[in-house]
Fold Galactokinase.
Amino acid sequence: MSFESIFGTAPDGSWRAPGRVNLIGEHTDYNDGVVLPIALPNEIVVTAGKRSDGRIAVSSVGHDAVIEFALDELAPRSVDDWAAYPAGAAWILRESGYPIGGANLLFESDVPTGAGLSSSAALLCATSIALLGLVDVEVDPAEVARLAQRAENQYVGAPVGLMDQTASMCCTAGHALAFDIQSGSLDQIPFDPSADGLTLLVVDVKAPHRHADGEYAARRKSCESAAAQLGVPALRSVAFDSLDETLARLDDEVDRRRVRHVVTEIKRTEDAIALMKAGRLREVGPLFTASHVSLRDDFEVTVPELDVAVDTALAAGALGARMTGGGFGGCIIALTATDSAAPVLDAIEKAFAEKGFTAPSALAATPSNGASRIN
């Protein structure tokens, strides 16, 4: 179905926002740490047209249903299902004083849903820049990311950090984005695996997100509780060099494991950034693997499919591999020599078949540009 056939009018333009994959720096964003995502070539495109009645209508390619709501009646969680995301973007823009108006919005996506590649952040960011674009209002990309995060926190009710939205808005092609949450600084780090004869495989393990929402919230609560016990504003303030002494001050063993993951993960991320800046990308692989071990043993957010995929990739010759995203399902990344990428994927597929797991899917991640207008 075309925009015209659904809404009966011609559109005024199209906008896009990509999904993302995080290279390293997992569960550090809500601890004021450092993250290192790239934008994917997979994106959500929204084709949009103005309307003058103060209402927004949304639909998606492949589905005939149209969901419609009034701008001035929006309140947190007043719209359900996937339409909560465009509704949330409209709500936060209005709440923040931006003069958006009614619109017809048609969405098309090739970002896999449920894979931990931030389709929700892409949906919020694409909607935001489309609604702003329709009224010719320019907003700094980093501010759009902050608005999108507030929409997901306050409207949708998901306690997400700021990494996903910032990656979708601010990444550039051929680079990873070093995002220091504490300072707010953004640094574009050269990242072009193909130039080094490497491939970054992203493998969706097709595992259901088991207890993901509740467990994510529990991990965040544990980190915040430990920070309070240590008398610091966030775990970013815990020095790596004095980690053992700091852990000894915590009574709860679970809290100690959570803190150890966050502090060591921040250090691994900083080390990865330094290696990438020095052009030593192959040496980043072991940091990926160490990150996965920490996420498995200390943060306890992996599932068997993720562990099997990582272990198999390493056994098949990957330079490094780790789960990426919040965990409890989703994807792994594997850094491989380009001529090893196909054998690594074949090995994972074979291992999954032997385990009786759902067959995985994969893509070769090319660092891509953040959100923009298409036409």
About this structure: The mean pLDDT is 95. The two ends are 20 Å apart (CA to CA).
